């Protein structure tokens, strides 16, 4: 019955409220966790338990009433190497005492997941795209009455266009931008 959603809630709760080592404080923490579980999963009837009517409430187990199954959420509770459980296994609690809790939201709304990154535009067909770009650069120089230089100035025009494509700009938009800048720099 323990799902990924249960594990995520346990991790969120433990991140917001560090699990204590002292038994009495751990019992309060465990009640808070059970209240949060009851709030987030209301049909599952989460609570805590005690081993018998004369024993104190557990320091590290939350459980469901029906079926009466527990989950040890704090491994090595009270020890220096105490940690939250990763996918705790169910514990049969037959003969023990269920302690109900009231649903309570201790965490507030769950953080919204970040939207997926915007996909990069398809990389242009290099043979066609760059040949066409080179032709446009050559025409810009011809329109300015100058010869296309095969030097660092020309390299910058190509590099800047490539940089913008790599940064996510659509290839044709990058080409138009840099041809426009070149034509302006050439006075045409």
Describe this structure in words.
The protein has 188 residues and is an alpha+beta fold. It folds into 2 domains: 4-100, no CATH class; 126-186. The protein has 5 helices and 7 strands, in the order H-H-E-E-E-E-E-E-E-H-H-H. It has helices at residues 4-16, 23-40, 126-143, 152-166, 171-186; strands at 46-50, 57-64, 69-72, 74-75, 83-84, 90-92, 97-100. The strands form 2 sheets. A 5-stranded antiparallel beta sheet has the order 6-3-2-1-7. A two-stranded antiparallel sheet has the order 4-5. A hairpin with a 7-residue loop joins strand 4 and strand 5. Helix 3 packs parallel to helix 5 (171-186) and helix 4 (152-166) packs antiparallel against helix 5. The termini are far apart.
Largest sheet: 5 strands, antiparallel
Output the structural class: alpha+beta
Average pLDDT number: 89
Give the H and E element order.
HHEEEEEEEHHH
**Radius of gyration, taken over Cα atoms and rounded to an integer in Å:** 32 Å
| Residue share in helix | 40-55%
Which ranges are low-confidence, i.e. pLDDT below 50, for 5 or more consecutive residues?
none
What is the number of helices? 5
Q: What is the global morphology?
A: rod-shaped
Query: Per DSSP, what share of the residues sits in E-state strands of 2 or more residues?
Result: 5-15%
Give the strand tally.
7
Strand adjacency order, main sheet:
6-3-2-1-7
Our count of domains comes out at 2
Q: Give the distance, in angstroms, between the N- and C-terminal Cα atoms.
A: 72 Å
Properties at a glance:
alpha+beta; 2 domains; 188 residues; 5 helices; 15% strand; five-stranded antiparallel sheet; two-stranded antiparallel ribbon
């Amino acid at each position: 019955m323990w799902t990924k959603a249960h594990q995520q809630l346990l991790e969120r709760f433990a991140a917001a409220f560090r699990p204590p080592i002292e038994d009495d404080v751990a019992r309060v923490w465990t009640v808070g966790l059970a209240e949060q579980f009851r709030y987030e999963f209301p049909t599952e009837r989460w609570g805590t338990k005690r081993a018998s009517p004369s024993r104190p409430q557990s320091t590290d187990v939350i459980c469901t009433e029906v079926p009466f199954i527990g989950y040890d959420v704090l491994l090595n509770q009270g020890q220096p190497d105490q940690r939250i459980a990763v996918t705790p296994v169910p514990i049969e609690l037959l003969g023990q005492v269920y302690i109900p809790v009231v649903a309570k939201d201790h965490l507030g709304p769950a953080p919204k997941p970040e939207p997926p990154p915007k996909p990069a535009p398809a990389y242009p067909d290099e043979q066609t795209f760059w040949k066409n770009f080179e032709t446009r650069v050559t025409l810009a120089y011809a329109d300015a009455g100058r010869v296309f230089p095969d030097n660092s100035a020309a390299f910058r025009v190509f590099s800047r266009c490539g940089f913008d494509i790599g940064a996510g700009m659509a290839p044709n938009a990058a080409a138009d931008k840099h041809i426009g800048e070149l034509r302006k720099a050439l006075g045409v």
